[in-house]
Amino acid sequence: MLRSLIQMATGSGKTHTAAAFCERLIRFAGAKRILFLVDRNTLGDQAHDEFQRYTSPYNGYRFTDEYPVQHARKNAIEPAAKVVITTIQRLYSILKGEPEYDEANEEQSMFESGPALAKEPLPVVYNAALPIEAFDFIVVDECHRSIYNVWRQVLEYFDASLIGLTATPTPQTIGFFGGNVAQDYSHERAVADGVNVGYDVYRIRTKVTGGGATLDGSPGLFIPMRDRRTHKKRLQELADDLT
User: Which CATH class is domain 3-192?
Assistant: First the structure.
């Protein structure tokens, strides 16, 4: 399984780049179907809109005028779809053979909460309705979130080349892709190219940031406190003033 990582600064056009190389993979590499994975439905909508807007430099046609793009909101893959956009949680539901999946579960990132934090990977077994050769390439948006814990099993089910997109790769992400960083497009380069806008940092001093603040304590007042070592939150009674 070939794995490639594309690192691009935030706002520099990762999804536009994905639409461009998806066209080339279909047009020149003979890709029959590409899976585009997102971590929530709003990002799926944005990706679908970008594919609709993308215009081919080869003939001037829009991507969706030449190649069907499906944003899967049902547990079924359209046979004619060249690009299938879906969340990894719906994909897992399809692999389990579930007839439907609640769309409300796709409104928040499952890479940061819920089953994604489970210690044991969820089981993934062969599904003849979605065989391992169903996709030639899998594009993983925000791949620094999705390749670990339970979801790694879903990605590795398919016999497909993986292409990761991220602005903030972790060492674990780079390791997962075997150090194969195909593109590293930094913010500085994006600014130099006129793609992104530069910024200046201003430090604003206030009375609170300079001298702190005091929270008046009283019996029966409970406030959330975080353990600095474990980061766990608990309620603690604030009988005395806290500065």
Answer: alpha beta
